[in-house]
Amino acid sequence: MAEPGPVAAPVPFAGQSDEELVRRVTAGETALFEVLMRRYNQRLFRVARAILRDETEAEDVMQQAYVNAYTHLGQFAERARFGTWLTRIAVNEAFARLRRRGRFEEADAIPDWEERAMDLIGAAERNPEQEALRREMRAILEAAFAAIPEIYRTVFMLREVEGLSTADAAECLSLSEDAVKTRLFRARALLRQELLDRAGVVSAELFPLHLSRCDRVIAAVLERLDLAPPERPHCGCPGGVCLAAAPSRGSGPMVS
Fold it and tell me: What average pLDDT does range 193-198 have in this prediction?
Protein backbone atom coordinates (compact mmCIF):
# COMPACT_ATOMS: atom_id res chain seq x y z
CA MET A 1 0.00 0.00 0.00
CA ALA A 2 1.28 3.45 -0.86
CA GLU A 3 2.56 5.64 1.92
CA PRO A 4 0.16 8.46 2.83
CA GLY A 5 1.30 11.85 1.58
CA PRO A 6 2.17 14.77 3.83
CA VAL A 7 -0.72 16.56 5.43
CA ALA A 8 -0.75 20.30 6.04
CA ALA A 9 -0.74 21.36 9.65
CA PRO A 10 -4.02 22.75 10.93
CA VAL A 11 -4.32 26.41 10.05
CA PRO A 12 -4.60 28.58 13.18
CA PHE A 13 -7.82 30.59 13.57
CA ALA A 14 -9.32 28.84 10.50
CA GLY A 15 -12.77 29.17 12.01
CA GLN A 16 -12.62 32.96 12.30
CA SER A 17 -13.53 35.34 9.52
CA ASP A 18 -11.17 38.01 8.26
CA GLU A 19 -13.34 40.68 9.82
CA GLU A 20 -13.21 39.02 13.24
CA LEU A 21 -9.44 38.89 13.04
CA VAL A 22 -9.27 42.55 11.98
CA ARG A 23 -11.31 43.54 15.01
CA ARG A 24 -8.96 41.58 17.27
CA VAL A 25 -5.89 43.15 15.66
CA THR A 26 -7.26 46.66 16.12
CA ALA A 27 -8.12 45.76 19.71
CA GLY A 28 -4.46 45.03 20.40
CA GLU A 29 -3.81 41.43 19.31
CA THR A 30 -1.38 42.61 16.65
CA ALA A 31 0.25 39.17 16.20
CA LEU A 32 -2.92 38.02 14.43
CA PHE A 33 -2.08 40.25 11.47
CA GLU A 34 0.28 37.47 10.37
CA VAL A 35 -2.72 35.16 9.97
CA LEU A 36 -4.35 37.66 7.62
CA MET A 37 -1.17 38.05 5.60
CA ARG A 38 -0.80 34.30 5.13
CA ARG A 39 -4.38 34.10 3.93
CA TYR A 40 -3.78 36.64 1.17
CA ASN A 41 -0.12 36.19 0.22
CA GLN A 42 -1.02 34.04 -2.79
CA ARG A 43 -3.70 36.39 -4.12
CA LEU A 44 -1.63 39.54 -3.71
CA PHE A 45 1.41 37.91 -5.29
CA ARG A 46 -0.62 36.77 -8.29
CA VAL A 47 -2.39 40.05 -8.92
CA ALA A 48 0.77 42.14 -8.48
CA ARG A 49 2.72 39.83 -10.77
CA ALA A 50 -0.07 39.98 -13.36
CA ILE A 51 0.24 43.77 -13.43
CA LEU A 52 4.02 44.13 -13.19
CA ARG A 53 5.28 40.89 -14.77
CA ASP A 54 8.13 40.86 -12.29
CA GLU A 55 8.28 38.59 -9.24
CA THR A 56 10.65 40.80 -7.25
CA GLU A 57 8.47 43.87 -7.74
CA ALA A 58 5.38 41.81 -6.95
CA GLU A 59 6.96 40.88 -3.63
CA ASP A 60 7.70 44.57 -2.93
CA VAL A 61 4.07 45.40 -3.70
CA MET A 62 2.89 42.74 -1.27
CA GLN A 63 5.01 44.18 1.52
CA GLN A 64 3.88 47.75 0.90
CA ALA A 65 0.25 46.71 0.61
CA TYR A 66 0.37 44.97 3.98
CA VAL A 67 2.11 47.93 5.62
CA ASN A 68 -0.49 50.30 4.16
CA ALA A 69 -3.34 48.04 5.23
CA TYR A 70 -2.04 47.64 8.78
CA THR A 71 -1.49 51.36 9.28
CA HIS A 72 -5.00 52.09 7.97
CA LEU A 73 -6.93 49.23 9.62
CA GLY A 74 -8.92 51.82 11.51
CA GLN A 75 -10.34 53.00 8.17
CA PHE A 76 -11.64 49.54 7.28
CA ALA A 77 -15.35 49.97 7.87
CA GLU A 78 -16.46 46.48 6.74
CA ARG A 79 -18.57 47.92 3.93
CA ALA A 80 -16.62 45.56 1.68
CA ARG A 81 -14.95 42.28 2.51
CA PHE A 82 -11.47 42.58 3.96
CA GLY A 83 -10.01 40.56 1.10
CA THR A 84 -11.48 42.95 -1.46
CA TRP A 85 -10.24 45.99 0.47
CA LEU A 86 -6.74 44.52 0.79
CA THR A 87 -6.59 43.47 -2.87
CA ARG A 88 -7.53 46.97 -3.94
CA ILE A 89 -4.66 48.39 -1.89
CA ALA A 90 -2.26 46.00 -3.64
CA VAL A 91 -3.70 46.80 -7.07
CA ASN A 92 -3.33 50.53 -6.47
CA GLU A 93 0.27 50.07 -5.33
CA ALA A 94 1.11 47.94 -8.38
CA PHE A 95 -0.44 50.45 -10.78
CA ALA A 96 1.42 53.29 -9.09
CA ARG A 97 4.70 51.46 -9.68
CA LEU A 98 3.69 50.77 -13.27
CA ARG A 99 2.97 54.45 -13.86
CA ARG A 100 6.31 55.44 -12.39
CA ARG A 101 7.96 52.94 -14.68
CA GLY A 102 6.03 54.18 -17.71
CA ARG A 103 5.04 50.69 -18.77
CA PHE A 104 1.31 50.99 -19.40
CA GLU A 105 0.46 48.94 -22.46
CA GLU A 106 -1.71 49.86 -25.40
CA ALA A 107 -4.82 47.72 -25.40
CA ASP A 108 -5.96 48.98 -28.80
CA ALA A 109 -3.08 47.18 -30.52
CA ILE A 110 -4.52 43.77 -29.63
CA PRO A 111 -6.72 42.10 -32.27
CA ASP A 112 -10.35 41.57 -31.39
CA TRP A 113 -10.48 37.80 -31.69
CA GLU A 114 -13.62 35.73 -31.23
CA GLU A 115 -14.03 34.34 -27.73
CA ARG A 116 -13.31 30.67 -27.22
CA ALA A 117 -14.49 28.76 -24.19
CA MET A 118 -11.79 27.42 -21.89
CA ASP A 119 -11.48 23.75 -21.11
CA LEU A 120 -9.07 23.50 -18.20
CA ILE A 121 -7.96 19.92 -17.90
CA GLY A 122 -6.95 18.39 -14.60
CA ALA A 123 -6.29 14.89 -13.34
CA ALA A 124 -6.26 13.49 -9.82
CA GLU A 125 -3.11 11.41 -10.24
CA ARG A 126 -0.20 11.48 -12.71
CA ASN A 127 2.94 9.46 -13.14
CA PRO A 128 6.36 11.20 -13.00
CA GLU A 129 6.48 11.63 -16.77
CA GLN A 130 3.07 13.28 -16.80
CA GLU A 131 4.05 15.53 -13.92
CA ALA A 132 7.17 16.65 -15.78
CA LEU A 133 5.09 17.43 -18.85
CA ARG A 134 2.58 19.26 -16.67
CA ARG A 135 5.29 21.51 -15.26
CA GLU A 136 6.61 22.22 -18.73
CA MET A 137 3.15 23.06 -20.07
CA ARG A 138 2.46 25.29 -17.08
CA ALA A 139 5.59 27.27 -17.92
CA ILE A 140 4.31 27.68 -21.48
CA LEU A 141 0.92 28.81 -20.22
CA GLU A 142 2.46 31.31 -17.80
CA ALA A 143 4.57 32.73 -20.63
CA ALA A 144 1.48 33.11 -22.80
CA PHE A 145 -0.36 34.76 -19.93
CA ALA A 146 2.48 37.23 -19.41
CA ALA A 147 2.35 38.20 -23.08
CA ILE A 148 -1.19 39.60 -23.04
CA PRO A 149 -1.84 43.23 -21.99
CA GLU A 150 -1.99 44.09 -18.30
CA ILE A 151 -5.65 45.21 -18.40
CA TYR A 152 -6.64 41.68 -19.40
CA ARG A 153 -4.12 39.82 -17.23
CA THR A 154 -5.35 41.47 -14.06
CA VAL A 155 -9.02 40.77 -14.67
CA PHE A 156 -8.30 37.18 -15.67
CA MET A 157 -6.18 36.62 -12.56
CA LEU A 158 -8.85 37.92 -10.19
CA ARG A 159 -11.82 36.24 -11.89
CA GLU A 160 -10.50 32.94 -13.23
CA VAL A 161 -7.55 32.16 -10.94
CA GLU A 162 -8.58 33.74 -7.63
CA GLY A 163 -12.28 33.13 -8.25
CA LEU A 164 -13.55 36.58 -7.30
CA SER A 165 -17.05 37.51 -8.39
CA THR A 166 -17.54 40.09 -11.12
CA ALA A 167 -18.68 42.60 -8.50
CA ASP A 168 -15.66 42.01 -6.24
CA ALA A 169 -13.20 42.18 -9.14
CA ALA A 170 -14.82 45.41 -10.32
CA GLU A 171 -14.45 46.91 -6.84
CA CYS A 172 -10.80 45.83 -6.58
CA LEU A 173 -9.98 47.43 -9.93
CA SER A 174 -12.29 50.46 -9.70
CA LEU A 175 -14.09 49.35 -12.86
CA SER A 176 -17.70 48.81 -13.82
CA GLU A 177 -18.97 45.25 -13.89
CA ASP A 178 -19.53 45.54 -17.64
CA ALA A 179 -15.88 46.51 -18.11
CA VAL A 180 -14.77 43.48 -16.09
CA LYS A 181 -16.94 41.19 -18.21
CA THR A 182 -15.61 42.69 -21.44
CA ARG A 183 -11.97 42.41 -20.38
CA LEU A 184 -12.45 38.84 -19.19
CA PHE A 185 -14.01 37.99 -22.56
CA ARG A 186 -10.98 39.44 -24.35
CA ALA A 187 -8.51 37.75 -21.98
CA ARG A 188 -10.02 34.33 -22.62
CA ALA A 189 -9.84 34.88 -26.35
CA LEU A 190 -6.22 36.03 -26.23
CA LEU A 191 -5.08 33.03 -24.24
CA ARG A 192 -6.72 30.66 -26.73
CA GLN A 193 -8.36 27.39 -25.99
CA GLU A 194 -5.73 25.37 -27.86
CA LEU A 195 -2.97 26.60 -25.58
CA LEU A 196 -4.91 25.85 -22.42
CA ASP A 197 -5.91 22.41 -23.70
CA ARG A 198 -2.32 21.52 -24.58
CA ALA A 199 -1.04 22.83 -21.25
CA GLY A 200 -3.37 20.58 -19.27
CA VAL A 201 -3.05 22.94 -16.34
CA VAL A 202 -5.71 24.00 -13.91
CA SER A 203 -5.68 27.80 -13.79
CA ALA A 204 -5.40 27.80 -9.98
CA GLU A 205 -1.83 26.53 -10.38
CA LEU A 206 -0.62 29.67 -12.15
CA PHE A 207 2.26 31.42 -10.34
CA PRO A 208 2.23 29.39 -7.12
CA LEU A 209 3.69 31.19 -4.11
CA HIS A 210 6.77 29.34 -2.86
CA LEU A 211 7.12 28.98 0.90
CA SER A 212 10.40 30.89 0.90
CA ARG A 213 8.72 33.96 -0.61
CA CYS A 214 5.72 33.63 1.68
CA ASP A 215 7.94 33.56 4.76
CA ARG A 216 10.21 36.34 3.47
CA VAL A 217 7.29 38.71 2.93
CA ILE A 218 5.84 37.94 6.36
CA ALA A 219 9.17 38.54 8.10
CA ALA A 220 9.83 41.79 6.21
CA VAL A 221 6.37 43.22 6.93
CA LEU A 222 6.51 42.34 10.64
CA GLU A 223 9.94 43.99 10.88
CA ARG A 224 8.73 47.15 9.11
CA LEU A 225 5.75 47.37 11.44
CA ASP A 226 7.92 46.68 14.51
CA LEU A 227 5.81 43.64 15.41
CA ALA A 228 7.01 40.42 17.02
CA PRO A 229 8.44 37.86 14.58
CA PRO A 230 6.32 34.75 13.91
CA GLU A 231 6.54 31.97 16.46
CA ARG A 232 7.01 29.41 13.67
CA PRO A 233 9.57 29.80 10.86
CA HIS A 234 6.80 29.17 8.34
CA CYS A 235 3.17 28.17 8.10
CA GLY A 236 3.87 24.43 8.27
CA CYS A 237 2.71 23.54 4.76
CA PRO A 238 4.35 20.43 3.29
CA GLY A 239 6.35 20.67 0.08
CA GLY A 240 7.49 23.90 -1.49
CA VAL A 241 4.18 25.73 -1.95
CA CYS A 242 2.21 27.60 0.69
CA LEU A 243 -1.25 26.15 1.28
CA ALA A 244 -2.39 28.66 3.91
CA ALA A 245 -3.99 31.01 1.39
CA ALA A 246 -7.66 31.84 1.42
CA PRO A 247 -9.54 29.51 -0.97
CA SER A 248 -9.52 30.61 -4.60
CA ARG A 249 -13.05 29.43 -5.29
CA GLY A 250 -16.23 29.50 -3.30
CA SER A 251 -18.28 31.93 -1.28
CA GLY A 252 -15.35 34.12 -0.33
CA PRO A 253 -12.19 34.17 1.77
CA MET A 254 -13.88 33.95 5.13
CA VAL A 255 -11.98 30.86 6.27
CA SER A 256 -8.37 30.10 5.58
Answer: 52
